[in-house]
Amino acid sequence: MFWSRHTWIPSYPDLNNMRPIEISVIEDSPADLQWLKTILSEVGLKHRLTVAQDGEEAVECLLRQGHYAGNPFADLIFLDMHLPKLDGLEVLRKVPDSALLPVCVLTSSDQERQLTTNHFGRQITYLIKPLSAEKLICCLRSQGALWSVADTLVA
Hints:
6 helices; alpha/beta; Rossmann fold; five-stranded parallel β-sheet; 36% helix; globular; two-stranded antiparallel ribbon
């Protein structure tokens, strides 16, 4: 992904010589983070992870500020809704043009679905924990630029 001040432009992977998918994980639970890492390994997705563990770190991560400065832009973002310091929706409100971000919301309940849909103005991928390989593939397919990547994982 290339970030301009106002737009996310997806970069389509060259499946013959695919670079690792840049994934930002915004999750405060070590167990949930480990589970996601396990699923990513199981499906064989070539990836690099950037992790933020609370809402304030999440804002810095998404804006590439602080110790996240210089990090590549994320092709996919897993965002937990129940974070310390700022919840997931507050994080999205602090990031300009966050409705354009390639976000898959992670949560343990279905209560925030309408709030995030209202923020994004569109349906987004909303995954109830625990994550599974099938849910991960669904998340990849929900992001247009990653559809072909999902297809290679299930082929």
